[in-house]
Amino acid sequence: MYTVYVIYSESLDKFYTGYTEDIARRLTQHNGGISEFTSRATDWELKYSERHDTRELAMKREKEIKNKKSRKYIEWLISSAG
Asked: Which of 13, 26, 41, 55 could form a disulfide with 9 if both were Cys (CB 3.0 to 4.6 A apart)?
């Protein structure tokens, strides 16, 4: 299983979207400075996630979210999940 996720940094006021097989490990990596974009903060929090059966489906969904290029869409996605 793969997870498409959205994390948020309050200090940067930024969202980041990605996918992974292990969300806990990936969040630790983001907060540990391993990822270039997210290395500027250490307060990343998981705000949204969805599971997919294959890597291909997860990649496709991640791309759909990123192609929206819309903070409002991401905020809507988060609010609609809760």
From this structure: 41
Please report, as a single letter, which amino acid is at residue 57.
L
Residue 82: C-alpha distances to residues 31, 35, 42, 47 (Å): 24, 27, 24, 10
Residue 44 burial by CB count (10 A; 0-12/13-18/19+): exposed, middle or buried?
Answer: buried
Residue 82 has pLDDT above 70, yes or no: no
pLDDT band for 3, please (50, 70, 90 cuts): very high
Give the C-alpha separation, 27 to 29, whole Å: 5
pTM, two decimals, is 0.93
Residue tagged 């192609």 (tokens): 67
